[in-house]
Amino acid sequence: MQTNNEQPRSRMLLLLVLPLAACSSVSTSSSQPPAIPPLPPEARQPPTPSICLPTCSAGLTSARESWRNMLTVPASPASSASATTMR
Q: What CA–CA distance (Å, rounded) separates 61 from 48?
């Protein structure tokens, strides 16, 4: 005869074994990654013209970096806000 204590334990064991049994089989269905089509010609970057020198490209890159840095540098405050509130 089962006691009241054994019945919940057997149910708990069953609840633990069922998920493990479900994960034990090897999944054979796998989906292929989606195919990425190539860019159309009008979306591609045109080749660099022959009149462009590498030094010009480097100079433009340097100028863009300095402009970007000027936009991201925080401005220094003229005076402290706490100095004006103290007496």
A: 15
